[in-house]
């Protein structure tokens, strides 16, 4: 059976891969840290790894992009978007006042993934301004830690699946400051994955290094795509880590590598003495479904009393 590495049970990544796979059978192998998720497929222990790479609120997840570029050489095989709906999770009985209502001023610590904490900044400063904040390997790791440490006033920010899996209470639901909070995930692996669901389109991701002392090189690179009417869905500069001020351009094109237009664009860019490293050419799934689920989730949320 296909083995897929993913963050801890009940993480956003876990919800997201369940959504991508639907009923398709596969074995999920869970890890505490994203670096272990990367290494697992790199070492051949799993066939694929699930990596969150971009968030509507924070933008690129830098650590994950860096691992994709510098630490492993595993192709991107699919991308999809999934909403991250965050909740405040803890042992409910620790936060009740005499009237039996929740009193979040009793919270001493809020733990979560470093991408999830800033997403809930307004909620935290309004309801728990004095709580310590602590980062964990995933939202679900935070839930597990809180579960193992009752009586300390600790809480976690995480998913409904995380609260259910680790048997903790949801103290407040949908607490992200912006409700259009989506994360883009990629599935990386050495072979394409056949999925039952139909893709919405194709993407090709590429790293382009510009030659030194070539004024206007980026303009020429972009022109190679533009005059062929190849749409770009993302462009971002990333440090090469070799020298201060040296950058790659990470570019995503809304086209498959099977397109002769795209291969011709890459050949033209290489002729300009740029280096082209293809990170993957893969199907893109279900953006509309993600939007529909956002509509279903609705906008309001907050502290759950009673
Ligand atoms: O920590 C998790 O649950 C993850 O899967 C990483 C993450 C965190 C916040 C938004 C999207 C993904």
Automatic annotation (TrEMBL):
The keyword Nuclease does not apply. This is Prephenate dehydratase. Keywords: Amino-acid biosynthesis, Aromatic amino acid biosynthesis, Lyase, Phenylalanine biosynthesis. It catalyses: prephenate + H(+) = 3-phenylpyruvate + CO2 + H2O. Pathway: Amino-acid biosynthesis; L-phenylalanine biosynthesis; phenylpyruvate from prephenate: step 1/1. Residues 2-190 form the Prephenate dehydratase domain. InterPro entries: ACT-like_dom_sf, ACT_dom, Chor_mutase/pphenate_deHydtase, Preph_deHydtase, Preph_deHydtase_CS. It is an enzyme of class 4 (lyase). It comes from the Bacteria. The keyword Amino-acid biosynthesis applies. GO terms for molecular function: prephenate dehydratase activity. Residues 206-283 form the ACT domain. Its EC number is 4.2.1.51.
